[in-house]
Amino acid sequence: MSATSPEHRFVHTPRNTAAKPARKTGTAAEHRVQVAAARLRVTLDQRLGRETPAKTKALAKEPI
What we know:
Number of strands: 0
Order of helices and strands: HH
Largest sheet: none
Structural class: mainly alpha
């Protein structure tokens, strides 16, 4: 039987590493980027007439 036979087509090897959990803390530079992105999102949502999530609005109000 070859490796391209139908029996082996959908067999995958398991991954060696587990998924890493998301970090809650970041650097100051990463935070500035997130605040700037939130400000852009608020502005875009206003122009398009969409509702912005409260969490995004709160982040946009933080100083850079």
